[in-house]
């Protein structure tokens, strides 16, 4: 099992889950492009695409940092094409970039609604669209999108309907594109965490104690297993990190906990 030499494009990978996935892939000697708009340090959200590139290189990969606003379709196409040109093609796309705003209907301003739809839905669709011509020529090509299983239970909508719609939009890209490109052998799958994951972005949300979360490494290890699967036979799945690892033989998940020994971990949204 190896992703050595794979040519990878990751959106929003300057920190958090996206960066951990990039570093896990890099350990095999893969070539990883990081497309995010964080070029300058933010006091609230540490990490830039350039510090991410350094970590990817330190892990054993080749890094290509690309300053990209995922809301700009021209910037997306330019970044994808630059990565494909530098790497000689693309084999893997990780749709990681995402915006979150957990507010009810009357508390969601239009600019927040637009941000979530521009990054989550539009960004996922357009990045996939730009990458697919390259992936169709790639080796064991995969698109992996960090979005949840589709559940129509109203409890997942009533407290943050705009956010839920935007994340489900990402998942509908998975559902539709997996069927559309199945014959061509491009795997299109989703990955979602069983529990809340400790990230800098999560720490900014009031009322969440990250001591009851898992570390991003669990998502990275699950993604690594998925990306090693045969693209022709593994598509259209809504994977959950813990389930992927259990199927591979992992039974002890304590090392992934922010505080080892924690039993009452926070379950993530959208899992019935």
Quick synopsis:
The chain is of the alpha/beta class and 272 residues long.
Lay out the secondary structure.
Layout: E1 7-11, H1 16-26, E2 31-36, H2 49-59, E3 62-67, H3 73-87, E4 92-95, H4 110-135, E5 142-145, H5 161-180, E6 187-192, H6 200-203, H7 217-227, E7 238-240, H8 241-247
Parallel strand pairs: 1-2, 1-4, 2-3, 4-5, 5-6, 6-7
Helix pairs in contact: 1-2, 1-7, 3-4, 4-5, 7-8
Q: Give the SSE string.
A: EHEHEHEHEHEHHEH
User: What topology, given as strand order, has the largest sheet?
Assistant: 3-2-1-4-5-6-7
Structural class: alpha/beta
- The helical percent reads 25-40%
Oligomer kind: single chain
Average predicted confidence as pLDDT = 95
- Rounded to an integer in angstroms, the radius of gyration calculated over CA atoms is 17 Å
The largest sheet, given as strand count, sense and whether it forms a barrel, is:
7 strands, parallel
- Between the first and last Cα atoms, what is the distance in angstroms? 32 Å
**Portion in strands:** 5-15%
Shape summary? globular
Low-confidence stretches: none
Number of helices: 8
According to DSSP, the number of beta strands is: 7
């Amino acid at each position: 099992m190896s992703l050595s030499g794979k040519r990878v494009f990751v959106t929003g990978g300057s920190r958090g889950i996206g960066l951990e996935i990039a570093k896990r892939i890099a350990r095999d000697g893969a070539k990883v492009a990081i497309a995010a708009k964080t070029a300058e340090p933010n006091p609230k959200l540490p990490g830039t695409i350039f510090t991410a590139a350094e970590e990817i290189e330190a892990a054993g990969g080749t890094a290509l940092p690309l300053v990209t606003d995922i809301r700009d379709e021209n910037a997306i196409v330019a970044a994808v094409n630059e990565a494909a040109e530098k790497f000689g093609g693309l084999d893997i796309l990780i749709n990681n970039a995402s915006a979150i705003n957990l507010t009810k209907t009357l508390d969601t301003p239009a600019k927040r609604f637009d941000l979530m739809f521009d990054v989550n839905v539009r960004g996922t669709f357009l990045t996939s669209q730009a990458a697919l011509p390259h992936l169709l020529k790639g080796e064991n090509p995969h698109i992996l999108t960090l979005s949840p299983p589709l559940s129509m239970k109203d409890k997942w909508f009533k407290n943050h309907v705009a956010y839920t719609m935007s994340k489900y939009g990402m998942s509908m890209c998975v559902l539709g594109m997996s069927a559309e490109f199945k014959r061509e052998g491009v795997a299109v799958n989703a990955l979602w965490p069983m529990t809340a994951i400790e990230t800098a972005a999560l720490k900014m949300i009031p009322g969440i104690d990250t001591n009851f979360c898992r570390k991003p490494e669990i998502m990275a290890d699950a993604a690594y297993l998925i990306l090693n699967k045969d693209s022709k036979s593994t598509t259209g799945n809504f994977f959950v990190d813990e389930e992927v690892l259990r199927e591979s033989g992992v039974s002890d998940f304590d090392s992934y906990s922010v505080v080892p020994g924690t039993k009452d971990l926070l379950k993530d949204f959208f899992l019935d």
